[in-house]
C-alpha cells in the first residue's frame, strides 16, 4: 500500500478541476468531499480568484483511493492517517518504508552522478552480465523517481546505442540484447504502475511495419507516471481490423509513431481511419524522426504533432488533458471511461 500512496503523492498538484468535475470523476458526492476536507484536511483544493475550489490530478487520485479504502472496510480516519504519514516522510524515510530489494555487488554512486551510473550499466551489458545489470536497475528505481530514471538513464543509453550502431561498433546481436534489456525494464515498470492510473485513456502504437518502439515505450511510461491510463499496442499497428477495437476502447488520445519514410503510406491510412472516428472523441497525436527529416509530412497527418524530444512530447500530450471531458477519465464505478 505504501507504494500506491507514494505514487498518488507524486502526481501533479496543479489546480485544474472544479468540484462538479471531481464528483463526476470520483463518484464521491459534494457533502462527503467537504466533510473529509473539514474533518481530516484531505483533499486540499486550492481556490480560484473567485473563491471556488479547484482540485489537482493528485487530489482526484487521492479521493478515489480514499473511496476505495472505505469500500474495502478501512475507516476513513485510518486511511487518512496512512496518507499523512507518508506525505510527511523525507526521501530517506521513503526508502526505509519501501520493501528492500536485492542490491548489486557494485553499488552505483549516490547523488546524481548519472554519467558514472550509465557507464557501470553499459559495462555490465557489454560483459553480458545481465544479472548485475538487472540488479543495478532494480536499485536505481528504488532511489530515484521513474521520470528521472527515464531521462537520465534509459534515454541517454538508447542515444548512445544508436550512435555506436551507426559507427559499426556493435553487432546486430549486441544491439538486440541492449534494446531488449531496456524494453523489458520499461514494460516491467509499466506493469508495476498500471493499477494506479486514474486519468484519461491513452493508446500508444507504432505505424504499420514500424519496429522502433523504445521511444514510444518511454513516452507511454512517462504518461502513465503522470496518471494516464495507457493501453500499449507496440509495433506495427495496421489500419485493417483496428477500427472496431478503437471504437470499443474509446481512448481520449491515440499516439502513433513512425521513424521511416517507407512506412508513411501505411501510417497515413491508419491516421485517416483514426481521424474518421471523431464522433468517438478520439484525439490523434503523432511523433517520429521522419517528421523532422521530412517536415512536409506533418501537413498530411490529421492530428497534433508532439515533436521528437521526449520531455517536450510528454508535456504537450499532458496539456491535452485540459481538453478531455471529465466523463472520459477513469470511472472507478464502471471500470471503464464513458463514451
UniProtKB/TrEMBL annotation:
Domain HTH merR-type: 16-85
Domain of life per record: Bacteria
One function term, GO molecular function aspect: metal ion binding
Residue stretches in coiled coil: none
Family annotation (SMART domains): HTH_MERR
SUPFAM superfamilies listed in its UniProt record: Cobalamin (vitamin B12)-binding domain, Putative DNA-binding domain
Entry keyword set: DNA-binding, Transcription, Transcription regulation
InterPro entries linked to this entry: Cbl-bd_cap, Cobalamin-bd, Cobalamin-bd_sf, DNA-bd_dom_put_sf, MerR-type_HTH_dom, MerR_fam, Meth_synthase_dom
Residues annotated as domain B12-binding: 199-331
Name recorded for this polypeptide: MerR family transcriptional regulator
Source taxonomy: Bacteria, Bacillati, Chloroflexota, Chloroflexia, Chloroflexales
Amino acid at each position: 500500500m505504501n507504494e500506491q500512496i507514494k505514487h498518488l503523492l507524486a502526481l501533479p498538484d496543479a489546480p485544474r478541476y472544479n468540484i462538479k468535475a471531481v464528483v463526476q470523476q470520483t463518484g464521491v458526492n459534494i457533502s462527503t468531499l467537504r466533510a473529509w476536507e473539514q474533518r481530516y484536511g484531505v483533499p486540499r483544493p486550492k481556490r480560484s480568484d473567485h473563491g471556488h475550489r479547484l482540485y489537482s490530478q493528485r487530489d482526484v487520485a487521492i479521493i478515489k483511493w480514499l473511496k476505495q479504502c472505505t469500500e474495502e472496510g478501512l475507516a476513513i480516519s485510518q486511511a487518512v492517517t496512512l496518507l499523512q504519514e507518508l506525505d510527511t516522510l523525507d526521501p530517506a524515510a521513503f526508502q526505509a518504508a519501501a520493501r528492500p530489494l536485492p542490491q548489486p555487488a557494485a553499488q552505483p554512486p549516490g547523488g546524481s552522478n548519472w554519467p558514472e551510473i550509465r557507464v557501470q550499466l553499459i559495462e555490465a551489458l557489454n560483459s553480458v552480465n545481465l544479472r548485475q545489470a538487472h540488479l543495478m536497475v532494480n536499485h536505481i528505481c528504488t532511489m530515484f523517481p521513474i521520470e528521472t530514471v527515464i531521462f537520465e538513464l534509459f534515454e541517454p543509453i538508447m542515444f548512445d546505442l544508436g550512435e555506436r550502431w551507426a559507427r559499426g561498433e556493435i553487432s546486430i546481436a549486441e544491439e538486440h540484447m541492449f534494446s531488449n534489456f531496456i524494453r523489458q525494464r520499461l514494460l516491467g515498470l509499466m506493469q508495476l504502475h498500471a493499477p494506479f492510473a486514474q486519468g484519461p485513456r491513452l493508446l500508444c502504437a507504432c505505424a504499420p511495419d514500424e519496429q522502433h518502439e523504445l521511444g514510444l515505450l518511454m513516452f507511454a511510461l512517462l504518461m502513465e507516471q503522470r496518471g494516464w491510463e495507457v493501453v500499449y499496442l507496440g509495433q506495427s499497428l495496421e489500419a485493417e481490423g483496428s477500427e472496431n477495437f478503437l471504437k470499443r476502447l474509446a481512448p481520449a488520445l491515440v499516439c502513433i509513431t513512425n521513424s521511416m519514410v517507407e512506412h508513411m503510406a501505411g501510417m497515413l491510412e491508419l491516421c485517416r481511419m483514426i481521424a474518421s472516428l471523431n464522433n468517438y472523441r478520439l484525439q490523434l497525436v503523432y511523433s517520429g524522426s521522419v517528421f523532422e527529416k521530412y517536415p512536409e509530412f506533418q501537413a498530411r497527418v490529421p492530428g497534433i504533432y508532439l515533436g521528437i524530444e521526449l520531455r517536450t512530447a510528454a508535456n504537450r500530450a499532458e496539456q491535452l488533458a485540459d481538453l478531455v471531458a471529465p466523463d472520459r477519465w477513469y470511472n472507478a464505478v464502471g471500470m471503464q471511461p464513458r463514451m
